[in-house]
Design brief:
The protein folds into two domains: about 1-35; about 90-275, Clam (outer membrane lipoprotein receptor (LolB), chain A). The chain contains six helices and twelve strands. The protein has helices at about 1-25, 25-35, 40-80, 90-105, 185-195, 205-210, and strands spanning about 85, 110-115, 120-130, 135-140, 150-155, 160, 175-180, 215-220, 225-230, 245-250, 255-260, 270-275. It has a twelve-stranded antiparallel beta sheet with strand order 1-8-9-10-11-12-2-3-4-5-6-7, covered by helices on one side. It is globular, with a radius of gyration of 43 Å. The model is unreliable at about 1-35 and about 60-80 (pLDDT under 50).
Amino acid sequence: MNSEIFTHSSERGEAQMTMKRSRDPLMSRRVRSAKGRQDPSAVRRKGIRSRWAMAVLAGLTIAGVATALLIGADDDAGAQGDDGPRAVTSEEADRLALTRFRNYEAGGRAVTITVPNTGGELTVTASVDFRAKSGYGTVQGNGRNTSSDGLIQWTLTTVRFHPEIDSAGPPPASGWSSRPLQTSGSALDTALSIVLGLGSDRPENALLLAQNGATWISRDELSGHRTDVMTGPNAHGTNDTSGTVRYWIADDGTMFRVQVAVASEPKPVLIDFDTHSYVPVQPVPSG
């Protein structure tokens, strides 16, 4: 019987304690507070993960914006490409800087030079050795100017003529007349000098070409070659881009045409490349 009394007393005590906790608001708050308390290290880890996720999202957003801007810039450049004249791009400046070196690299090329003249045009059909700085071919007058028809050979200092018309085979052993190459006053001599200057043993400075006003003019096609027309190094091969020299340049930097304004003529000199087969230039006998 004593054990039953003890049991009933214990049960009544636990029931009273439970009722007391339920009636005591302060005790209830303590229980909830204990349950809601978290490990500080877990809170820090959760905060770090949240900040990292936000940083990744921000980075992706910035990258997306940058890509869109780059694509827009490329689109603008493409749209601008057909609207000249304009300043050359860095890639165009590189090709312009390389084009005279391409001629030197080739050694020699076939050229046709059209020279304006008051008595009618002169046409020089020749081969040019850009390393030896010499050219050899024929010169013919169109219109009234036929007095100079014959063979022509020239260097940076001398022009030689021969009355024979056929340039096939080696240069004639005799019958040549010569004179100094004029530095001014002769459209023909100016054109001959310019052609020899279209080969250089090293590329130009692309940065200086761009800074000195090199300009993209348009696109053109010559004998199946797609080219860009640009102003570039002047007639003396320096970086001064005065706009008087235009180059037709392919994607690899190969030169296919040059147009040069000369002071003595209202029309420009026109130099076309690879219009016929190149024949190695042979020295002219001194006699």
